Structures
1.
Amino acid sequence: MSKTTVTLLPGDGIGPEVSQAAVRVLDAAGAEIEWERHIAGAEALEKYGNPLPPEVLESIRRNCLALKGPITTQVGKGFKSINVQLRQELDLYANLRPSRSLPGIASRFEGVDIVVVRENTEDLYAGLEHTVVPGVVESLKIITEKASLRIARFAYEYARRHHRKRVTAVHKANIMKLSDGLFLDCVRRVAAEYPEIQSDDKIVDNMCMQLVMRPEEWDVLLLENLYGDIVSDLCAGLVGGLGVVPGGNIGLDVAVFEAVHGSAPDIAGKDLANPLALMRSGVMMLYHMQKDEVAERVRRALRDVIVRQKIRTRDLGGEASTTEFTDAVVKAIEKDTSA
Ligand code: NAI
């Protein structure tokens, strides 16, 4: 079978550790992927004087697929977020982040199964900020009908395909009547075409409270970019934390899969990071590539290691290092394959 070429961006901080772990697992499972490795972020800035060298975008456009580790963005200074640039440049308009309670992973709640669908290209992340006069800064929130309609359609199509029962639009249209009002209006127009799916909406602050009170009641959440960023981290916290939750940035032709978590500089280079979230992002990528059998093999191995063997990294209350956890998953895949 010929191999599929996928761009690999290992990223910063814990990125190289968790990317290496995910690659080992996908290779062991027989994903038949040829990895085309590129650097972006701080390492690329140092080496090429550009944190997002053109060959990174060219590679992803050519391969249409990438697996990406987290990339550090400095707070309040430095270059524009590479993550935001990639999503905007490649028009990866839908950010998909499923947060599901997993057997063997302790958390405060059970039975959580929430899919966050986040608009990925506009809102306050358009990066249009300027100083009006010293001491006064203006940051523009861009909401367009086009982007709102297409993310709403993505969410409803996802819900239909995956037999989800309900889509909740999350907004602040009581205050931002024009921008969030437009988003909500677009969602309602699309919702009318999917009568079999229950549709409702919630104001974002109330939504956060509801999520931490009764998370098991929610299904698909549809949000603008900023609310989606915040609420998806909250949802990760409901099911075991950032070490667990995968994600995909999906466009019309191109998709980039990455975990919800960042570069975790506090634990970088210590073999402590949980690679599960990026491994599960790899599983999402395998389904996207229609390699369902390989995806199932990885899922079975993860379940075996976490639930039966009870091997977990420290963020999940275990003692395994990144390498030990990965070794165990690779071994479980090899056992499964030879069975
Ligand atoms: P973070 O997600 O990197 O870390 C938050 C906390 O979660 C830390 O205590 C960290 O140790 C822990 N954590 C995260 N991932 C973990 C894992 N796989 N295993 C075990 N523990 C894990 O968020 P933070 O500190 O706000 O951001 C750090 C940097 O990452 C920033 O520069 C930020 O811009 C960047 N970032 C990049 C993202 C991306 O590339 N998609 C997404 C989010 C943040």
2.
Amino acid sequence: MIKILDSTLREGEQTPGVYFDTHIKIAITELLDDIGVNIIEAGHPAVTNQIYRSVSEITKKCSHAIIGAHSRCLKKDVNLAIECKVKFLGIFYCVSDERLNLYSKNLNQVIEQIVEVIQYAKDKDPGLIIRYTPEDTVRSPWKNVIEVATEAVRAGADIISIADTTGYMIPGTDRSMYDYVKKLKDELADNDLYPEIAVHCHNDRGLALANALDGYRAGVDIIDASVMGLGERAGIVDLATLLTVLATDFNERNRWSLKKIPELYNFVSSYSGIPIPVNLPTTGKHAFTHCAGIHTQATIKNSLHYQSLDPELFGRKSEISLDHMSGLSSIKYSLEKIGEDGLKENIISEVLSKVKDIGQKGRCVSLSELKYVVRSLKEDN
Ligand code: HCA
Ligand code: CU
């Protein structure tokens, strides 16, 4: 069964300008817990005192999910995370040739440091789940990745995460996450090593979800995501879309309380100051709203004509937009909704023209506005 790691509080807080107070982080943790994610990456305690305090507060609250911290490959970062009493530690260190040059270190020196820090963390807390991530995994030389992953697992890492740090992978090409996961699992298995494998996919090319699903099909154990895909640059995998696709199209039914998702998204949007894009799948304002006359006419008869997901999954309903695209069927449907179904045909046509006029100014007519449109037309007639 796939595990979901939510990184809204860590990667998500790396969105420019986003900052969550401790009590907001606790509320987000509780909502994530209600939804049923497995691991919550709560922050990197070495970054600021506030993050240190929030991570410690979050671990004190009872939670079903495993609470984790992010850490550079340094004992001082590990110490701070352990002080916060996390059960999961994500250590990252890049092994691309360019980075090694930048640090003026060779691969062996870096491996030595990684092994030492992982062993140190395991000694301090043998129950700690350790993930090692060769940052920018997929653009680093394969030889470096396999060597460092092998030694990290031998030193005690439980999870190796494949980071597509720059959103570089493309399904079905020689940059396929599916092939990458298979190859990594196979080569580690050749050495009798079977760590859990995670994927962390950035969305620079808009392919984060596609790559994460590629990883899923190749048998990864953990997928990283965040609310609205918040994170560095174009962010990472959007949590709601990931859970929806896994629950409806793959073998992960009934795993998550999807009805809680709108509450989580509205909350995170309010306190991050980042609006939910109207066209974001499942959570966007327009995710289940039909507009053009042909669409609305068919949808009113049978919502499946233009929908392959059931809005009820998220406690939502299909909606019809009233604007310059509307036709008579949208108008009649909406009039019925406001209890005005007995109007004469000439008034209905006038309502349609008025709605189209307003729509041409670039806005939609809400049902509450429609009542007044009808009232004034009735008075004129
Ligand atoms: C970062 C980069 C990271 C790390 C992922 C991980 C990435 O912000 O430190 O530690 O698993 O995308 O590589 O988010
Ligand atoms: Cu990242």
